[in-house]
């Protein structure tokens, strides 16, 4: 009997040890992050030596899936959280349960957002689809249009006078309206830009935000060189953007882009090193890189300690003043519900 019990215990332990990994994706199948996760999981399996199952937990603004992982699954050593830029924006301005500071980075792609425009359109009076995902672009093109202003209310007035901010569009409706010329501007992540904007012969690049560097600056995007926002601003206005409005932009832009495609486990997860090593192998393998870059473009991976440092750089942008300005412009210009999370700026 003792041998039988020991055998059963050994079988159970072995089964748990060899259990498949699960990736939690906070949206339904077919979304941008879902497609990215499926590609990465398939490639990562080759180097991990274990299967990875995708579990979708969709919900409003993709918050419920991240909250569920934080509250119910993060202590499971075989569960990986896939977060994206929308989660980053929600972290800044909505009541959420998750907190990036308590997690270990497996790795992330240091991505960008690209804004397109109708060829030859006058972008001093753009028409653009509203939405929380478009917040960083609204800040950027407001600065391009209005230049250096002293006060927040001036930016709000300039935005209201010059921008047609069209509310109520879904992603597919926004893309169709842009293709028809009903909107003069649009924005997409790299994979979606390659799919929806680049093939449009009546569209061209407007600007991109740049690639965040470890020192908090931005580098040009090698996939779309020559259109970085700060450089275009300097070309038009004679100096780089600065001040409180720019700081609010940099805060929301960096969380939106810097957390766009990221993999997390709980701090202390014993499988973190195994996952990080497998991701390093995947990201340096020519075949796997080609598969991922065909979909997304050539962007740098930040893995393990580099991913944690990237998160820490983002957190350095969080100040009480930037959060307050973010909420003010969001609510008074963009009409977005935003919570002033003063506690984030005090930590």
Question: Overview of this structure, please?
Answer:
With about 350 residues, this protein is α/β, with parallel strands linked by helices. It has 2 domains: about 20-110 and about 260-315, D-Maltodextrin-Binding Protein, domain 2; about 115-255 and about 320-345, 3-Layer(aba) Sandwich (D-Maltodextrin-Binding Protein, domain 2). Helix content is about 50%, strand content about 15%. The chain has 15 helices and 13 strands. Strands 2-1-3-12-4-13 form a 6-stranded mixed β-sheet, sandwiched between helices. Strands 8-5-9 form a 3-stranded antiparallel β-sheet. Strands 6-7 form a two-stranded parallel sheet. A hairpin with a 5-residue loop joins strand 10 and strand 11 (about 220). Helix 2 packs antiparallel against helix 12 (about 285-295), helix 5 packs across helix 6 and helix 5 (about 135-145) packs antiparallel against helix 10 (about 245-260). The longest helix is centred in the N-terminal third of the chain and has 17 residues, at about 30-50.
Outline of the structure:
With 347 residues, this protein is α/β, with parallel strands linked by helices. The protein is built from 15 helices and 13 strands.
Give the key terms.
3-stranded antiparallel β-sheet; 16% strand; single chain; disordered N terminus; 347 residues; D-Maltodextrin-Binding Protein, domain 2; alpha/beta
Describe how the helices and strands are arranged.
Blueprint: H1 2-17, E1 21-25, H2 32-48, E2 52-56, H3 63-73, E3 79-84, H4 85-93, E4 103-109, E5 114-118, E6 127-129, H5 135-146, H6 152-162, E7 164-166, H7 171-180, E8 185-188, H8 190-196, E9 203-208, E10 211-212, E11 218-219, H9 229-237, H10 244-258, E12 261-266, H11 272-284, H12 286-296, E13 301-303, H13 305-315, H14 320-332, H15 342-346
Parallel strand pairs: 1-2, 1-3, 6-7
Antiparallel strand pairs: 3-12, 4-12, 4-13, 5-8, 5-9, 10-11
Helix pairs in contact: 2-11, 2-12, 4-10, 5-6, 5-10, 10-14
């Amino acid at each position: 009997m003792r041998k039988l019990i020991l055998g059963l215990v050994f079988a159970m332990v072995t089964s748990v040890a060899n259990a498949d990994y699960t990736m939690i994706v906070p949206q339904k199948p077919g979304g941008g992050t879902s497609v990215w996760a499926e590609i990465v999981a398939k490639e990562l399996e080759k180097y991990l030596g274990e299967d990875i199952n995708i579990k979708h937990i969709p919900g409003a603004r993709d918050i419920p899936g991240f909250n569920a992982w934080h509250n119910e699954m993060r202590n499971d050593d075989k569960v990986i959280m896939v977060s994206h830029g929308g989660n980053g924006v929600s972290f800044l301005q909505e009541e959420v349960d998750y907190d990036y500071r308590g997690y270990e980075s497996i790795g992330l792609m240091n991505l960008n957002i690209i804004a397109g425009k109708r060829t030859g359109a006058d972008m001093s009076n753009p028409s653009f689809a509203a939405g929380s995902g478009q917040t960083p672009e609204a800040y950027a093109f407001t600065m391009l249009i209005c230049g250096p202003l002293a006060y927040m209310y001036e930016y709000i007035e300039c935005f209201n006078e010059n921008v047609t901010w069209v509310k109520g569009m879904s992603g597919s409706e926004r893309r169709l309206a842009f293709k028809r010329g009903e909107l003069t501007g649009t924005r997409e992540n790299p994979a979606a830009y390659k799919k929806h904007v680049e093939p449009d012969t009546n569209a061209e690049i407007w600007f991109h935000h740049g690639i965040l560097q470890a020192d908090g600056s931005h580098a040009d995007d090698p996939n779309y060189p020559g259109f970085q926002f700060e450089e275009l601003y300097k070309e038009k206005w004679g100096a780089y953007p600065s001040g409180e409005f720019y700081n609010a932009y940099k805060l929301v832009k960096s969380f939106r882009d810097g957390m766009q495609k990221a993999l997390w486990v709980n701090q202390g997860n014993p499988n973190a090193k195994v996952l990080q090593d497998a991701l390093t192998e995947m990201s340096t393998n020519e075949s796997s890189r080609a598969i991922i870059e065909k979909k997304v473009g050539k962007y740098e991976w930040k893995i393990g300690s580099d991913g944690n440092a990237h998160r820490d750089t983002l957190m350095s942008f969080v100040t009480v003043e930037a959060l307050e300005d973010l909420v003010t412009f969001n609510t008074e210009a963009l009409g977005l519900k935003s919570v002033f999370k003063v506690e984030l700026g005090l930590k």
